[in-house]
């Protein structure tokens, strides 16, 4: 991939689709992934931890922020069919893969959008927002997204975010605590932590 990062709207690397398998929340999934898309060879440990720990309401709206090729949103939609799942990513190739994967895994009703963060998400009634944020893009990208999430959640709603412990988990936890009423660690393992921040 050279020095290109997946946090870009139009990857310049040559397309190279491949199919991977993953077991998430006890169910088997197949995902088509692409060059220039985050963690294309497997569902990474952080995303897996987030999926497994995610508190899923039986109804209402869930946002998968920075969905990549779709494992979080697709697993949520499969687990709770009445849930309205919106998935967004800046990366066009990721969004195209996510749409294929939603169909491939039998959840064609998810709403997948391409855009930068909340720019394509006017709704303010999400019960849960889940994110494996692009930490390597820097705090100047990630922290505003985490703050903006509060404006899109219902009272009592949750922002669930996974971060590698060594890549600033403590500072992110402190930052979230300045914005949200409570921040809990709901999962940890493999060098990652999942925080649930309550509005």
Write the layout of secondary structure elements.
Layout: E1 18-24, E2 27-33, H1 45-53, E3 61-65, H2 71-79, E4 84-89, H3 92-104, E5 111-114, E6 126-131, H4 139-149, E7 153-164, H5 169-177, E8 182-189, E9 192-198
Parallel strand pairs: 3-4, 3-6, 4-5, 6-7
Antiparallel strand pairs: 1-2, 7-9, 8-9
Name some characteristics of this structure.
199 residues, alpha/beta, Rossmann fold, 5 helices, 9 strands, 31% strand, disordered N terminus
Overview of the structural elements:
- It is globular, with a radius of gyration of 15 Å.
- Strands 5-4-3-6-7-9-8 form a 7-stranded mixed beta sheet, with helices on both faces. It has a two-stranded antiparallel sheet with strand order 1-2.
- The chain is an alpha/beta fold.
- It has 5 helices and 9 strands, in the order E-E-H-E-H-E-H-E-E-H-E-H-E-E.
- Mean pLDDT is 92; it is low at 1-6.
- Helix 1 (45-53) runs parallel beside helix 2 (71-79).
- It has one domain: 3-Layer(aba) Sandwich (Rossmann fold).
- The chain has helices spanning 45-53, 71-79, 92-104, 139-149, 169-177; strands spanning 18-24, 27-33, 61-65, 84-89, 111-114, 126-131, 153-164, 182-189, 192-198.
- Helix content is 26%, strand content 31%.
Report how far the terminal alpha carbons are from each other: 38 Å
Number of helices: 5
The CATH architecture comes to 3-Layer(aba) Sandwich
CATH fold name: Rossmann fold
Question: What structural class do helix, strand and pairing data support?
Answer: alpha/beta
Q: Rounded to an integer, what's the Rg over CA atoms? A: 15 Å
Helix content: 25-40%
């Amino acid at each position: 991939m050279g020095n290109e990062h997946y946090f870009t709207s139009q990857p310049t690397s040559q397309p190279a689709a491949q199919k991977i398998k993953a077991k998430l929340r006890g169910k088997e999934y197949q995902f088509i992934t692409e060059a220039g898309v985050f963690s294309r060879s497997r569902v990474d440990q952080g995303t897996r931890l987030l999926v497994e720990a995610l508190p899923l309401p039986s109804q209402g709206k869930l946002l998968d922020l920075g969905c990549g090729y779709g494992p979080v949103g697709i697993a949520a939609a499969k687990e709770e069919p009445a849930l309205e799942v919106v998935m967004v990513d800046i990366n066009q190739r990721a969004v195209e893969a996510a749409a294929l994967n939603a169909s491939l895994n039998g959840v064609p009703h998810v709403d997948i959008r391409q855009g930068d963060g909340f720019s394509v998400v006017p709704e303010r009634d999400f019960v849960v927002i889940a994110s494996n944020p692009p930490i390597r893009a820097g705090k100047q990208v990630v922290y505003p997204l985490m703050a903006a999430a509060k404006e899109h959640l219902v009272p009592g709603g949750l922002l669930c975010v996974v971060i590698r412990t060594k890549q600033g988990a403590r500072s992110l936890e402190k930052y979230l605590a300045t914005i949200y009423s409570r921040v809990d660690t709901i999962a940890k393992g493999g060098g990652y932590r999942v925080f649930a921040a309550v509005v």
